[in-house]
Amino acid sequence: MKVDGVHHRTIGPAGEGAAVVIIDQTHLPHSFVKARLETVGQVADAITHMRVRGAPLIGATAAFGMWLALEADPSQGGLRGAKDLLLATRPTAVNLAWALERVFKSVAPLPPPERASAALEEALRLSEEDVEINRALGLNGLPLIRQAWQRAGKCRPVNVLTHCNAGWLATVDWGTALAPVYMAHDQGIPVHVWVDETRPRLQGALTAWELASHGVPHTVVADNAGGHLMQHGKVDLCIVGSDRTTAAGDVCNKIGTYLKALAALDCGVPFHVALPHPTIDWSISDGLEEIPIEERDAGEVTDVAGLKGGALETVRIFQQDTPVANPAFDVTPARLITSLITDKGVCAAGEEGLLSLFPERGLDSHASEGED
Q1: Rounded-to-integer distance, Cα 341 and Cα 245, Å
Q2: Is the domain defined by 2-129 classed in CATH 1.10.10.60?
């Protein structure tokens, strides 16, 4: 995607030395800053403190973190230590564990001197795959927006509501939920995005910045406004992303997603979830019981940062001793989801729908049962 007419990706090797360059998202939307990370500790810190965020990008970043770790210590202990360190940064997004396991398996059989270069090759391969996966996902979701435009008689923009940021900033490029939106806009389909502010981290600011950079019309709304908009016919469809999707089609996404799905069901608004296939956790089926929900720092709720006089300032909005709970994600059951948009196609949310796109997973399951 482009910023001021220049193509950027969210992450990549620095080009000189053992380092990776990221877009530091903690500076957005007020300034566009790239940061250089040279150690696995810096990578872990960047993931933990959301300098990078979004399930696909977290996975890619962790893969590059393994490379940097092995540049410093390619021993078996260094390999396992790096994997454990990075795995502990964000427990909910399944792409993190998937990417770490992929790099680990590719380099563990190799002699230590060969591990760092192999890890870099795998991280680069994973990143390129992420771009192609999300491009395919966007193409598969595009007809849903085109159909909504046709239902509207092609006489007004298609109104899409999204929650959190599932654009290119959450991936290596293209994005998930926003990929079909960008493609529709580029093909001349008029589209307008209702952007949830997404408290407490306010990722809606990232979505608004992205859409503005690409020229897509949008309006930011308070999280609690979504149901009202749907009741009054101002939303044609909802598209959100996913940090982890179960084999039964339950979706874990940023806190507040579940409430939007409930409102959409009540108002008859299609509710779609866009997810690349590495976001599917085939090992679990009950999202409410089996997905670990990250509990983040209370300061994200009690404090708010903003721009004042050209400088960022943080102010506290609750009294000092106010008890706070800050779950970062919630789970939307498959029964509330109209469809899952994947890089392999669009399907009904549920085990049968997912297996229609990934039949090999059903074969794997039957083979495992036979072995027992």
Answers
A1: 12
A2: no
Candidates 104, 75, 73; CA nearest to 87 is: 104
For residues 107-116, b (16+ Cβ closer than 10 Å) or e, as one string? beebeeeebb
Contact 160, 145 (CB under 8 A): yes
Q: How many alpha carbons fall within 13 Å on the CB side of residue 115?
A: 28
For the stretch 185-224, pLDDT in tens is 999 999 999 999 999 999 999 999 999 999 999 999 999 9
The pair phi, psi for residue 345, each rounded to 5°, is 140, -175
Element (H, E) at 126: helix 112-151
H helices within 277-358, ranges in order?
287-290, 299-302, 351-357
Q: Does domain 138-371 have CATH number 3.40.50.10470?
A: yes
How far apart CA 198 and CA 352 sit, in angstroms, is: 32
Backbone angles phi, psi at 193, to 5 degrees: -110, 125
| Cα–Cα distances in angstroms (integers) from residue 168 to residues 215, 227, 288, 292, 313, in the given order | 14, 26, 28, 25, 27
155-180 pLDDT per residue, tens: 999 999 999 999 999 999 999 999 99
User: 243 an active-site residue?
Assistant: yes
Q: Out of 173, 236, 243, 343, pick the active-site residue.
A: 243
Start-end of CATH 3.40.50.10470 domains in the chain? 138-371
How remote is the C-alpha of 246 from its chain's centroid? 15
Element (H, E) at 244: strand 244-246
